[in-house]
Amino acid sequence: MYDPAGTIYEVLREAADDIHVERASDRAAALRTKTADLVVLAAYERTDWQTATRLQGEVPTVVVSTRYDERRAARALAFGLDGYLDAALPATTLTRAIHGALEGELAYPRVVLGRWIRWQRSAAATRTGARALTRRQVEVLGLVARGATDKEIASVLGISTATAQKHVANILKRLGVPNRAAAAAFLRSGGLS
Question: 112-188 architecture in CATH?
């Protein structure tokens, strides 16, 4: 578990006493956890998305946050993380979610997963439409709609920031919209289906 402050570590250790939890208090130690079955990243005031996505590239990663909100959970899902949980969940719920993540299940609230599934359906319809975007453009548009910056898009997709900027520019041009907000609104309105 990567938790510089140790507060969420203590909550998790008490809630899931049947799970062996080791704490990394610095980023470098957390990034060396390639042999772990699951990494839990503690988030307090903000979520360290760069570390979360780097960890996810090595081992399944779940964020446990003291400042939970659905937008952050949706962003974690868009980044491919295995979960985003509220540190204030009842101990039994938190334990069940961590156990599920250890078994390969996603640890997200139903509302977040439901929205993601609806968006995926919309994206699938997009690929078959006359104004179809490429698969990569659909991925980029999904991240744009969730508020990801060009740098974050690049990090998640493993491309350069310049390439991410080009993808965004091409999406705006193909959709005929003036900016990222309009592209996100276009996606949410079902304009791609």
Answer: Orthogonal Bundle (1.10)
